[in-house]
From TrEMBL:
Residues 1-28 form the signal peptide. Keywords: Signal. This is Uncharacterized protein. It comes from Rhodotorula diobovata.
Amino acid sequence: MPPPSSTRRRRALLGLVLVASHASSALASPLAKRDAVDEGGYYNPTSNGGRWLTYAANSGGTGEPINVVVSGDSDEVVHTADGFYDWSLSINFGSYLLDSQGVGSYAGECLGQTDGERQAANLGDGLGIRNQTELYRENFQDVTYGVCKESAQGGYHYRIWQQVGPEANSSAWFLAASEEESLSQNHMIVPNGYDLGRDEVVRRATVAGGTTSPITNRTYEVTAQNASGPGYFANVTTSEINHGIATDGIVAVLTVRVTSDPVTAKSISAASRALAAPSALVLAQGTALALFTTLALALLA
Ligand SMILES: *[C@@H]1O[C@H](CO)[C@@H](O)[C@H](O)[C@H]1NC(C)=O
Ligand SMILES: *[C@@H]1O[C@H](CO)[C@@H](O)[C@H](O)[C@H]1NC(C)=O
Ligand SMILES: *[C@@H]1O[C@H](CO)[C@@H](O)[C@H](O)[C@H]1NC(C)=O
Ligand SMILES: *[C@@H]1O[C@H](CO)[C@@H](O)[C@H](O)[C@H]1NC(C)=O
Ligand SMILES: *[C@@H]1O[C@H](CO)[C@@H](O)[C@H](O)[C@H]1NC(C)=O
C-alpha cells in the first residue's frame, strides 16, 4: 500500500533538506573529516584515530593513561592557556614567575625549564601526534619554587594537551596525571600511580567551597563525572601502559566554572567609570578636536 500523500511530500522535503545540507557542508569544508564523536564538552580521541594513552619516548609505543579531561563546557576563561594555568594554580599545580621587568607568566616546571621527558599524544582532532604543551607539577602552595621541590622529591603532576584541531575543536584540555617517585628514583611512577594522580586532581578540584587562584584571586568550582568502557580503556591492556602499571580505566571529566573574577570585574568597572563620567582631560581633548576640525574645514573651503 502506498503511503498517504502527505507522508510522501514530507519524505520528499526531507530528502531535499538532506541534499541541501550535505551540499552546504561539503562546500564549507571539502577536506574536513567529521568522524570524531562528541561526548559533550570533548570529542572522543579513539573515534578519530587518537588514543587515551600518551606516547612515551623509548618505551616501545607504550604510554601513560590520559585520565582527566577539563571539558570544553567549562567557562570561556578556562579555554585560554592562561585561564587553564590559573585554575591549575588554584589546585596547587604549577608556578608563576616574574621576569626582571616584573612581568608575570605561568609555568609548569622548575623556573620554567623542562627537566622531565616530554611525551606525545593524539587527541583525534586532526593535529596528529604532538608533544605535550606543558608538564604541571605539584607546588606545595609555593607558586615560585614549589614545583622544583616536586621535581626533586616526587609527587603529583600532569602532562597537558588541548583538543583544538580542525576535526575536533572542543577547547577541552586532556591531562595525563600521575604520582611519581623522586628524581633519585628516576621519576618512576609509584604503584597504582596513574589512578592515584587522577584521584588527587579530582579531590583538590572538587573541594567544598571551591578553589582560589593565588595570583588573580579568581574563584573556581568544579563538577566531576566519570567516563569509561568502550571507546575509553575497554581494550587497552596493562602491557600497553608505560611501566606496566594498571589503571581502572576511568577518565574523570571536570567542568570548571568561574564563580568570581576580580580581574574581569576590575576592567569592567574601570570601563564603565570611563563611560559614565568622562574626565576633564577627555572633554578638553574633545573640544580641541572639534575646534581644530572646524578651522581645518574653514581653511579648505
Ligand atoms: C618532542 O619532544 C622531544 C623530547 O622529548 C624532542 O626531542 C622533539 O624534538 C620534540 N618534538 C617536537 C615536534 O617539538
Ligand atoms: C577552534 O575554535 C575557536 C573558537 O572556539 C577558534 O578561534 C579557532 O580558530 C578554531 N580552530 C580551528 C582549527 O578550527
Ligand atoms: C588578591 O587578594 C589579596 C588579599 O586580599 C590582595 O592583596 C591582592 O592584591 C589581590 N590580587 C588581585 C590580583 O586582585
Ligand atoms: C569516579 O570513579 C572514582 C574511581 O573509581 C570514584 O572514586 C568516584 O566516586 C567516581 N565519581 C563519580 C562521580 O562517579
Ligand atoms: C576495542 O573494543 C571495541 C568494542 O568495545 C571494538 O569495536 C574495537 O575494535 C576494539 N579495538 C581494538 C583495537 O581492539
